[in-house]
């Protein structure tokens, strides 16, 4: 192994995984909803934000539509 490396001649490459990176957003959720996903997170060991993301992604991939009516 060398004592020093010269990175000045190195050509940069774009990150090939950039399209897979997550985008931070601010979203308002009910306390009950957060509590629900946090309880699942404790049981599974998966962070609750990841669980919410997985659930929303599943809805999007399967083109699920919300069925509700206002009374």
Explain this structure to me?
With 71 residues, the protein is an all-alpha fold. The protein has a domain at 28-61. Helices cover 39% and strands 0% of the residues. The protein contains two helices and no strands. The protein has helices spanning 31-44, 48-61. Helix 1 (31-44) packs across helix 2 (48-61). The protein is elongated and about 70 Å long. It starts with 30 loop residues before the first helix and ends in a 10-residue tail after the last helix. The model has no long low-confidence stretch (mean pLDDT 91).
What characteristic shape results from the CA principal axes? elongated
Question: How would you classify the helix and strand content by structural class?
Answer: mainly alpha
Total beta strand runs: 0
Radius of gyration: 21 Å
Q: Considering DSSP H and I runs of 4 or more, what fraction of the residues is helical?
A: 25-40%
Largest sheet: none
User: Strand share of the residues?
Assistant: under 5%
Counting H and I runs of at least 4 residues, what is the number of helices? 2
| Helix and strand run | HH
Overall pLDDT, averaged?
91
Distance between the termini: 72 Å
Flag low-confidence runs: none
């Amino acid at each position: 192994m060398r004592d020093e490396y010269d990175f000045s001649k190195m050509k940069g490459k774009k990150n090939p995984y950039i399209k897979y990176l997550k985008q931070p957003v601010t979203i308002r959720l009910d306390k009950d909803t957060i509590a629900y996903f946090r309880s699942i997170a404790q049981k599974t060991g998966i962070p609750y934000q990841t669980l919410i993301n997985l659930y929303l992604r599943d809805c999007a991939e399967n083109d699920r539509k919300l069925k509700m009516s206002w009374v």
